[in-house]
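Q: Could you fold this chain for me?
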Amino acid sequence: MEIFKNIFGSKESSEPLIINVDTVYININVREVTKNIDGKELKEFQYDQIQMSKDEYIALLANQNDKLKTELTNLMDLNLEKEETIEKLTKQLNNVLEALLESEESEESKEEKGVDENEEK
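A: Sure. Below is the predicted structure, expressed as structure tokens.
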């Protein structure tokens, strides 16, 4: 693999990814520049380039794929943990709400009994 900085070329040669028969070019930091040559403005593209063999590129893609699989698995595990936590908290909240309702009903019942007892006196 070779890295080249500040290469000048055409729009076509500055595409983000160029795959030839045995070589792959990855162009980054592409920007359009204007040069003044013999009083004429010439538009070119300047970019940094990573050049590698197809085998190196395939190995790079395989490595990135493995990393993505690992990251996806980690995210799925986190999501599962999050869902389990939400379910647990929802059950706890429902239990608290049920206890509050029972307490409120008990208080109302006591108040009604108190009113009934007062009416009897």
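A (continued): The chain has one domain: 2-116.
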